[in-house]
Sequence to fold (476 residues):
Amino acid sequence: MTTRAPRRLPSKDIKASIRQRIADGGWQPGMKLPSERELVQQFGCARMTVHHALRELEDEGLIERRQGSGSYVARLHPISNVLRVRDIHEEIAERGHLHVTRVLSVAREKAGAEVAAAMRLRKGSTVFHVRLVHLENGVAIQLEDRHVNPALAPGFMARDFTQVTPSHVLFEHAPLTEAEQVVEAVLADAEQARALEVPAGSALLRVSRRTVSQGAVASVARLYHPGTRYRLIGHFSV
Amino acid sequence: MTTRAPRRLPSKDIKASIRQRIADGGWQPGMKLPSERELVQQFGCARMTVHHALRELEDEGLIERRQGSGSYVARLHPISNVLRVRDIHEEIAERGHLHVTRVLSVAREKAGAEVAAAMRLRKGSTVFHVRLVHLENGVAIQLEDRHVNPALAPGFMARDFTQVTPSHVLFEHAPLTEAEQVVEAVLADAEQARALEVPAGSALLRVSRRTVSQGAVASVARLYHPGTRYRLIGHFSV
DNA sequence: CAGTGGTCTAGACCACCGA
DNA sequence: CGGTGGTCTAGACCACTGG
Fold:
């Protein structure tokens, strides 16, 4: 019998092996990797296993694959870094902190031009409007200014937003199918400053989020965070 | 012969089918999906195919899977939205616009306490320091304030940053293995305001990025963007 | 314990690319 | 055209979960 490679080389090991050759510079950016069938020889496993490993490395942005051509070490952009914007309640709870919600206003309103456009409704349509402040251990970290489409969440106004976040309520009503988010820096106006307990003219991180459910806009939210108390954090690693 | 299902149901169709039942509310959040082996019966295909389809749906955040238990419609968080922070040159080029870089300063410096800590170097170590402004069609959209570890990019200072971005140069030298990013809102000080051609006290979006290569910090950058001229945009769809 | 998802094998055919 | 990745089959054993 010839000597055999270690009895098992699961796709984890294949990934680790390739990852290392990239990380230590052995395989330079742009360089072509061995073909799947060659790697099958090297690792002594089925092609599906190699394929699976390469597919995951592609998902992670480490390599690029082109059908009919081959697999290549990614040229730039292993720094395709990712920032997740999370639900405020989960985020606070995960830090083991106390989440308290302060309700500023809850109202039925006629949509103005701007709100109507964002929600794809006619101007003057009835919309729900809530304004809340979320506190983490007593410190204001988010001002939530949200408009909701009554058609998609009829029972919305009856809920107690000191107990459950609007996001949760919306999700119960309508499974969402689409979302857009925009992150910007803005200056706090007097009212926002008062709500968040920061000086007027402070820098705020504004996350504008629009959610779509079954083709209709379910909700449009503007989430304001004090620049000094809130950060979006992303981490990436090979 | 009994009637047969349509001759081929690739994993795309399995995904589409499940996706729709979730989107139209037929399968509610938290509900248990049929097991892989049951779906094999329903779709008349191999288990690998079903498995692959479910795996992708999990990647997209639509379902959750627990070994030994089953697959479930995700409870919240199809809105685990994702923001990518991209290379400024690519971003501008992709919009078909002109990218011009203005070099404010290029210098060897002794690291102060703060920079030294961020780069895991001793205070007083020599570091490279560049300050650039990136213009899109003549409008300033990013002030790049970057420190670089000389050990990982010895030829850095010789480069012409009006022709190639520091990110590119760094990537040539050392394949990066790790990165952190933090996004905050800050107020423009006088110098930043001048560089970006905005009023002092304007809101800026600050992206702080630290990249690690082979265990050492390669570079620390602070990227300032006028709040009114720059946005991070994310889109998600079922 | 039976049932679940996780992984792997050893084939196969296809669509695509480049010379 | 030959070589590439993309996908699929029909099995198999494993690790984990829950009652």
User: Anything to note?
Assistant: Residues 11-73 of chain B form a domain with the Arc Repressor Mutant, subunit A fold (CATH 1.10.10.10). The longest strand of chain B covers residues 99-110. Chain B has a mean pLDDT of 87.
